[in-house]
Design a protein that fits this description.
The protein is α+β, with helices and mostly antiparallel strands. It is built from three helices and eight strands; from the N terminus they run αβββββββαβα. It has a single domain, classed as Peptide deformylase (Peptide Deformylase, Alpha-Beta Complex). A hairpin with a 5-residue loop joins strand 6 and strand 7. The structure holds nickel (II) ion (NI).
Length: 178
C-alpha cells in the first residue's frame, strides 16, 4: 500500500473519461483500492476517484463517519464503487459547498441532484444498488463526475461563489474534500 500523489486541476488527465473495469477481485484491483483508501485517509478526504491518482479506470471510493462538527451531514458508508451508473429520480436539486482533493484549498457552491439511485459493483464484482439523498447523493455525483472528466468548478453556476476556503470560512472548520 502507498499514499499516491494526487493530480491537480490543470492536469489534462483529469479531463479524460475513465475506462470500465473488466476483471474483478484481481490483485491489481485490490492494490489500487488499498492505495486509494490510504491516499484518501492521508488527506482526510470524503471521496476519491481513480483518475485523481492517475489511473484511468471507473473506480471511486467514498465514505464519511458521524462527525460531531457537522451534525447535519448524515454518515455515508465506506463504499468501493466500480463501473457506476447514476439514475436521477426527479429534477430536484440542492446547492452546497464542495471541495476536491484535486483543487486544494478551495470551495465552490455546487448544485447537485437531491435524490439519486446508483448502481455499480464492489471490488468482488457484487452488485451495489442504492437509493440515496443529501450528502450521500452529492458525494456520489462528485466522484462519478471525475470518471467523466468533470471537476466541480465546471458545475458552479455563479463563479462569485468559488474561492479559497480560509477566506470563505475564516472561523469555521472546512468540510472534507472529495
Ligand atoms: Ni474530487
Amino acid at each position: 500500500m502507498a499514499v499516491r500523489s494526487l493530480l491537480r486541476m490543470g492536469d489534462p488527465f483529469l479531463l479524460q473519461k475513465a475506462e470500465p473495469v473488466l476483471s474483478f477481485d484481481t490483485p491489481e484491483l485490490h492494490e489500487l483500492i488499498a492505495d486509494m483508501r490510504e491516499t484518501m485517509a492521508a488527506h482526510n478526504g470524503a471521496g476519491l476517484a481513480a483518475p485523481q491518482i492517475g489511473v484511468g479506470l471507473q473506480v471511486v471510493i467514498f465514505g464519511m463517519g458521524v462527525n460531531p462538527r457537522y451534525p447535519d451531514a448524515e454518515p455515508v458508508p465506506d463504499t468501493v464503487l466500480i463501473n457506476p451508473e447514476l439514475i436521477t429520480l426527479n429534477e430536484d436539486m440542492d446547492d452546497a459547498w464542495e471541495g476536491c482533493l484535486s483543487v486544494p484549498g478551495m470551495r465552490g457552491w455546487v448544485p447537485r441532484y437531491s435524490h439519486l439511485r446508483y448502481r455499480g459493483f464492489d471490488l468482488h464484482g457484487q452488485l451495489i444498488d442504492r437509493t440515496v439523498t443529501g450528502f450521500h447523493a452529492r458525494v456520489v455525483q462528485h466522484e462519478v463526475d471525475h470518471l467523466q472528466g468533470i471537476l466541480y468548478p465546471m458545475r458552479i453556476r455563479d463563479l462569485r461563489q468559488f474561492g479559497f476556503v480560509d477566506v470563505l470560512f475564516p472561523t469555521m472548520d472546512p468540510a472534507q474534500d472529495n
